[in-house]
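Give me the fold.
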Amino acid sequence: MPNAYVNGSNIKYEQYGEKKSEHVLFIHGLGSSSLAWRDIPQALSEHFHIITVDLIGFGESDKPQTANYTMKGFSKFIIDFREAIGIKSDEKITLVGHSLGGYIATEVAIENKALLEKLVLIDSSGMLSQPTPLLQQYHDVAMEPEPEFEKVKKVFEQMYANPLLLHPLVVHIFIKTIKEEGAKRAFKTAFDDSTTRRIEPERLKEIADIPCLIIWGKHDSVIPTNYSNEFKTVFNRVVSETIKDAGHAPFVEKTALVYEKLRTFLTQ
């Protein structure tokens, strides 16, 4: 993966279809990285310039103690990252955000509406006033001084509709990354901010006319499907897709189907 320097921090990212003129940026969820998207970004590069990024504090990106890991901090980071990789200030971009990444994408849209082409929210946070029980379990295993494989695996399995699809490597990578210096602070700060502060309805209405695709796993136990309704009712041009036999990350369990939903929406 190439790297970019954003406010002095080394940020890992990948891009595909660089010669395409329409930009699509994928933003991963809490405790995750750009690896989560599987081969969807590369497949979509037939049509678009696709960028995936490891958020500051996560994945292979730097995890500085001084970074602002709140939603507003991440929103500014995305704008600064955009500039760092050479996207011009007057060029529009489509944001695809999963979970925490959906919250961040929405914040970016609200604060920089003129820059947004389209918005895709996948099992997005942003409507929680407190952590769901499974989110709290996720937090608790992440904060342990030495996260144990079986404990983490048990929590991750609950995030899937079919736990057999959980690859052990996903658990190993998470444990390795969360033990890195600065990783727990990034995780906890982002967790606390995103699970206790909802997006204000009046702010959300400011982006009601942005075309929006909402994708949700039918069996999401992290952020259940009822939380999607508050997004659906706001957007004037919204496409809503519920993915059967999928949990919190439907692009992992139903990769081909989610790719097709994305391709259809983004090429319209």
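The first strand starts at residue 3 and ends at 6.
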